[in-house]
Model the fold of this input.
Amino acid sequence: MINSIDRRRFLGLAATAGAALTVPASPLRAMNSNNKLIVGVMGMGGRGIRLAKICEQQPNVEVAYVCDVDRQRADKAVAEVAKVADGRSPKALTDFRRILDDPSVDALVIATSNHWHAPATILGCQAGKHVYVEKPCSHNAREGEWMVQAARKYRRRVQMGNQRRSWPAIKEAVDRLRNGEIGRVYHAQAWYLNDRGSIGHGKPAPVPDGLDYDLWQGPAPRRPFRDNILHYNWHWFWHWGNGELGNNGVHSLDLCRWGLGVDYPTQVTSVGGRYRYDDDQETPDTNVVAFTFDGGKMIRWEGLSCNRMPEGQSNDLVFHGENGSLAIHGGGYTVYDDKGKAVRNSPGDGGDEIHVVNFLNAVRNGEALTSEIEEGHKSTLLCHLGNISYRTGRTLNCSPKDGRILGDRKAMDLWGRDYADGWEERIRP
Ligand SMILES: NC(=O)c1ccc[n+]([C@@H]2O[C@H](COP(=O)([O-])OP(=O)(O)OC[C@H]3O[C@@H](n4cnc5c(N)ncnc54)[C@H](O)[C@@H]3O)[C@@H](O)[C@H]2O)c1
Done:
């Protein structure tokens, strides 16, 4: 149960968001006189720091705020960004409402834990900010639908952080698929492997100094603090995270969907378990998920969170077509003929910068987004459906129109989530 102080606090948040509910007249805001883009970043783990530095290093872009509910992380982020900031320092915040309150801020970058992605995006849109939100864009399917609606309603640019869509060699590979280089493409197989350790069995513990655990929980119903959740391990609890499928699977599922040219699946089956360690982790460490689509196409994803391939391979995907196959590895790709012989090899670099710059250009001058939120939602939805199939232990039949689950009320119960008091009203468009 949320207590009355929490309730007042979050009603305060509602007031902040509500105060900014005017729908901006134009999708792009009038820039300040220098045409400088002002950015605020929330969630200053490894990812947030990386994104803040990239933003700060772009011409005529200023990271005005770095925000983390963990004061130590916010302070560390100031020092990190200052290293690339040409004598300037962003301001450290622990409460992202101050970013929303500042009318000079054009864009909000969100690199928090997943349960905050959609709520912060929607509040950002309500406050007139354009949003770059990390993958997976939502904690659950319904939030993804709300994000798309919010981006449309408030006419904001919203991009998901699935940066592989921007990598030049991968774009080239997808063009080759589309141009029929391996004939009709009907199957994509992707996998992710890692050698993560156990998260152990957590104990109730005092909230560490400098951490606003109440604001960290934000839209999620309250749970007492335990010593094996923060940071990062929240990924492995359904209350806040989406397991390996939503963590790393979403990157390759997005490319599979793009390469095959499919949107919503008609059937989803997930099998697996938490086999490697006896600990608190709820999400599977060993998982195979299959998605079928209208038009005779299928995606298969395999995740092993606690094992490596013998040769250390971690993350790859292969498309199969009538005349051969195309493998994507890192930032490059190889085309094989129908006997498995390599006929074309194109190495390529990865990196995050092109994707972030695309977002900044979209805000500044209307460039088309590479991964507009509706596409981000479709790819993230594959993860949510895979997780719902895993949690219910059965195959889901879905509508090819919007991915909604057909004829299974219990499975549809997992389409959304319960919220802390007042939150659903605040973020539902
Ligand atoms: N695109 C990519 O390649 C990529 C790579 C790594 C991580 N990510 C994504 O980025 C996100 C962050 O990943 P990470 O590894 O840095 O995680 P992390 O757990 O180390 O960091 C998340 C940070 O967000 C902070 N936070 C949570 N709620 C907040 C709030 N309301 N306001 C301000 N700060 C808040 C936490 O205190 C923490 O410091 C995840 O969603 C992850 O999936 C994407």
Summary: The domain at 165-200+215-350+381-412 is CATH 3.30.360.10 (Dihydrodipicolinate Reductase; domain 2).
